[in-house]
Amino acid sequence: MKIAGNYSFAASREEVWAALNDPEVLARTIPGCQRLEQVGENEYESTLKIGLQAVRGVYSGRVKIDNLRPPESYEIHVDGKGSNGFLKGSGSILLREENGQTILDYGGEAHIGGTIASVGQRLLDGAAKTLISQSLKALAAQIEARRTEAPTPELAAATTPEPAETPTPEPAAATTPEPAAATTPEPAETPAFRRTIQVPAGEGLSEVDVALGVIEDFLKERPWVPWVIIAFLLGYLLGQRR
Predict the structure, then answer these.
(1) Residue 224 DSSP code
(2) CA–CA dist 185, 187 (Å, integer)
(3) How confident is the model at residue 113 (pLDDT cuts 50, 70, 90)?
(4) Which residues pair with 60 in a beta bridge?
(5) Is the pLDDT of residue 52 over 50?
(6) How many CB atoms lie within 10 A of CB 240?
(7) For residue 66, how many other CB atoms are within 10 A of its CB?
(8) Residue 227: other Cβ atoms inside 10 A
(9) Complete domains list, the chain, with CATH
(10) Can you give the pLDDT at residue 35?
């Protein structure tokens, strides 16, 4: 299955890049994300619960990002599985600026196996496009929220440096130098990348959010639909009165 498309953000390329590389943001914009754990440099494990009928199920997998070229592009590799199949794929993300906006171009190819592979190609393509579209919309909302956030008064007070006090010199006391104690150098610490991101209830992209987003997109593309429904209801009610 091949996937390609683009999305426009009303933000600078640096803002979009920073959001794409923030695990806290990603955990809130991945559809159905139940767990996102950083297990290495630019490497994550996640558990997703997808509610779309074509790909309904719980999936776990690993995502690795490499060939980073800030703030322009990177490559992504995915290896996941669920009760109804598995998926392996790779793709790329490219950011470019155009007319004061940032355009995100994405493309990739995935190999699917198991029960999910028996689903029709059109249904799989539709489900993939829906999930990607809703995820990018959530990312745009997160970027806007980051832009409007202001530091709290407590944080501002905590970070305001206090004037340094001038030390009062004390008379020097006669001291007998002690022999230097033998010190054993401590081994260097290994960088710990493991980190689990917890998404507070109501802040992630849930199944309900995805469903509402799909309806919203459908109505934007077909603004005449509500009027057809209203006309049908009026006709039905008038017919009942007769």
Answers:
(1) T
(2) 6
(3) confident
(4) 47, 81
(5) yes
(6) 7
(7) 12
(8) 9
(9) 2-148+193-205 (3.30.530.20)
(10) 85
